[in-house]
Amino acid sequence: MSNSDGVFLYIGTYQDEPAARSDYAIVKSLHASHVIGTYDAAVITKDAIGRVHVNKDETATRRGGWGGAAAGAVVGILFPPAIIGSAIVGAAVGGISGHLWRGMSRSDVKELGDLLDAGEAALLVVGDTTLGAALEKAELRAEKHVAKELDVSTTDIDAAVKAAADDVV
Predict the structure, then answer these.
(1) CB neighbour burial string for 62-95, b if at least 16 within 10 angstroms, e if fewer
(2) Residue 115 in domain
(3) C-beta neighbour count of 141 within 10 angstroms
(4) Minimal CA–CA distance to 8: which of 39, 48, 52, 30?
């Protein structure tokens, strides 16, 4: 899909959480400098019993409505609910999951899940297509990474978030 309204997904793995958080800070600074537009991000860790934890902060820096829903939706696609240690709930996550799921092939899901299983910590970033080039130039320090442009538009994600917000009101 190569258009300016596309969704880009980046997952990088790290030896530890501080290394993932360091690259997360770079992503936040790219947004603050207006180098990247729409995005949502999270640092993902696994505990000793294999439960996945999604660590997020500063949702106000992300595009208004996405506020954590896009990264949560990707985690929900990649991992079964039984191993997710933090609550990922809400209609917005469900609506976005549907769009993102349709934008990924089964091999994409397997590749991304396998990558996350291999590391101690990961940085997950979901954003518009400006994200890909910006992250490449930023030279993040992930040990391994996968970057994919998904066959879904940011307009679809925005609509799913708006629909969920309308359902709540």
Answers:
(1) bbebbbbbbbbbbbbbbbeeeebeeebebbbbbb
(2) yes
(3) 14
(4) 39
* Cα 34 from chain centroid (whole Å): 19
Q: What is the pTM of this model?
A: 0.76
- C-alpha torsion sign, points 148, 130, 15, 42: negative
Give the residue carrying structure tokens 């030896």.
15
- Looking only at Cα atoms, what is the longest distance across the chain? 43
Tell whether 1 is covered by a domain: no
**pLDDT averaged over 10-residue windows placed end to end, the chain, 169 residues:** 70 91 94 86 82 67 54 69 49 54 68 69 87 92 89 75 59
Q: Which helix (H) or strand (E) holds 153?
A: strand 144-153
Tokens found for residue 92? 């917005």
Query: Is 21 within a domain?
Result: yes
- Specify the number of domains making up the chain: 1
